Amino acid sequence: xxxxxxxxxxxxxxxxxxxxxxxxxxxxxxxxxxxxxxxxxxxxxxxxxxxxxxxxxxxxxxxxxxxxxxxxxxxxxxxxxxxxxxxxxxxxxxxxxxxxxxxxxxxxxxxxxxxxxxxxxxxxxxxxxxxxxxxxxxxxxxxxxxxxxxxxxxxxxxxxxxxxxxxxxxxxxxxxxxxxxxxxxxxxxxxxxxxxxxxxxxxxxxxxxxxxxxxxxxxxxxxxxxxxxxxxxxxxxxxxxxxxxxxxxxxxxxxxxxxxxxxxxxxxxxxxxxxxxxxxxxxxxxxxxxxxxxxxxxxxxxxxxxxxxxxxxxxxxxxxxxxxxxxxxx
Length: 330
What we know:
Blueprint: H1 2-12, H2 16-23, H3 31-44, E1 59-64, H4 71-85, E2 89-94, H5 102-111, E3 116-120, H6 132-140, E4 144-147, E5 158-161, H7 163-176, E6 182-186, H8 192-201, E7 211-213, H9 218-230, E8 235-238, H10 241-253, E9 263-268, E10 281-284, H11 287-302, E11 311-314, E12 317-319
Parallel strand pairs: 1-2, 1-3, 3-4, 4-5, 5-11, 6-7, 6-8, 8-9, 9-10
Antiparallel strand pairs: 10-12
Helix pairs in contact: 1-2, 1-3, 4-11, 5-6, 7-8, 9-10
């Protein structure tokens, strides 16, 4: 008990006597201090006193895929700042290929009495993935918000970039540069954002079959890019900046220059895309506005307000840099 008092007091920056008063429900403690002490108990892994366990901690789970794609750390930074300004503490949960699953993280977050959960790049975006943990959250009435497109049946608020319009912008840019053989690189076939990007590509494409599904990685972009270049594509639209960098690598392995022989458009406008060689033309996701909207929706739901489950669509922005140029024959 003494060790717990000392650790919590040090974490919060108050006296052990103050912590003791909170744990014993004594009066004379400000609400801010009381909340900080209870949150510290949760963060440090201590159980709350029985009479306090019915209250939720001011913790919010932030469940992300692996952090290799720079867009996810950037999004986490926006969300963490917005949560902190509302006196919530984010609990970062990063999924890995052979590590803790999204469902396992949900179980851990429930044990920590979190107030809500934010998911980005989660299982909800793929039809063949596990979805039972979302239903567990819904059954418990725990607020959650999803970032980007989700399959049918997952009834949480969604905040998304308009994938269809994003591809239309990229396609129009390449057409304006004289490209006719334009290919698209997207994620797995059951991945909802990729399906939407394909839906934006097919009606406009001169060759609507000039697309490739792959995994979201440099290697995936390299492999898919190689296949499309072998089919004669001179312009490539990619579903992420990481895929675009893989496609540029594929072009160079084939002794093609970018943008002299091949133009490449990414998606995200993640950090350091101005520093690549050449700087990457890409579709910018408005992560600042999206992150703020996600937190606003979640906090409103936590407060008990009705929150619509309609999808909020945010407008993407084409950012032209050095990886696109006139078609070789133009």
